[in-house]
């Protein structure tokens, strides 16, 4: 697995080092980063982590049990500015981007099984003329795919997929259409089968309005936009139910009836999973020609440098990426 550097002023380096201390339970991974930066950081934290520079990803498997393998990002774009915890520097944006580009190239070339990304600081990248809204859109561009990928937040307790993502609530509602919901359902169903090994996935489609519109009394989107998407998914042979009232969709009992919930907007999906599984939820990108996972949290600039960061979500992402890669390989061989 290829792990990206993420924002160097955030907690990515710290949680990477901490995650490696659990290496006995992980598939081998290497990080595309600055080895000297990680050595200094390990010393400051007081972690007994050996850092070993590698020339190729193949070397990672051989040394992973005794050292954290690091493929130097400096070969592509060195860190020109000193890293100050909690203070992103736009001058280092090129290296952050290069780390992601390198990881994708290696997985597309078959030199890595999957990509796991540490959190990025979008504002620092935007100021460096980064043209993409976020990780997901950038990965789609690097993969050269025309169909927009889908973001899933996944944990054992719950898997959610927002149809609209980084938009204001007003814009999200205005842009919602039957085709987008149907496409999200189709991609999610395929991923649940291929990457999660679920033979017949069950999808729950959330409503948009209170009480799922109450038959049109509280909004027409369920009748005009969402219900036709549910019918289209059923016609495609998918076990889809809905529209379901959002306030009843995420109870423990309700979650037993489906494998993933298709939600209409960002917070409708992210609030429940963060409430239920904040420390171990994983951000997964569906619809890419490779497996990509990421911790379900940001750069945590407010605690960077305090050495209090929790590596649980990164560990969950590494474990999930490994399991998804194995499931995808099995599905391709079948």
Keywords:
334 residues, alpha/beta, Isopropylmalate Dehydrogenase, 2 domains, twelve-stranded mixed beta sheet, globular
Textual characterization of the structure:
With about 325 residues, this protein is an alpha/beta fold. The chain has two domains: about 1-150, Isopropylmalate Dehydrogenase; about 150-285, Isopropylmalate Dehydrogenase (3-Layer(aba) Sandwich), CATH 3.40.718.10. It is built from twelve helices and twelve strands. The protein has helices at about 10-20, 35-45, 60-65, 95-110, 120-125, 135-145, 170-175, 180-195, 220-235, 250-255, 265-275, 310-334, and strands spanning about 1-5, 30-35, 50-55, 70, 115, 150-155, 160, 200-205, 240-245, 260-265, 280-285, 290-295. Strands 3-4-2-1-5-12-11-6-7-10-8-9 form a twelve-stranded mixed β-sheet, with helices on both faces. The chain is globular and about 60 Å long. The chain starts with a strand and ends with a helix.
Write the layout of secondary structure elements.
Layout: E1 2-4, H1 12-20, E2 30-33, H2 35-45, E3 51-53, H3 58-63, E4 68-72, H4 93-108, E5 114-116, H5 122-126, H6 135-143, E6 150-154, E7 159-162, H7 169-175, H8 178-194, E8 202-206, H9 221-235, E9 239-244, H10 252-255, E10 260-263, H11 266-277, E11 282-286, E12 291-295, H12 312-333
Parallel strand pairs: 1-2, 1-5, 2-4, 3-4, 5-12, 7-10, 8-9, 8-10
Antiparallel strand pairs: 6-7, 6-11, 11-12
In short, what is this structure?
The protein has 334 residues and is an alpha/beta fold.
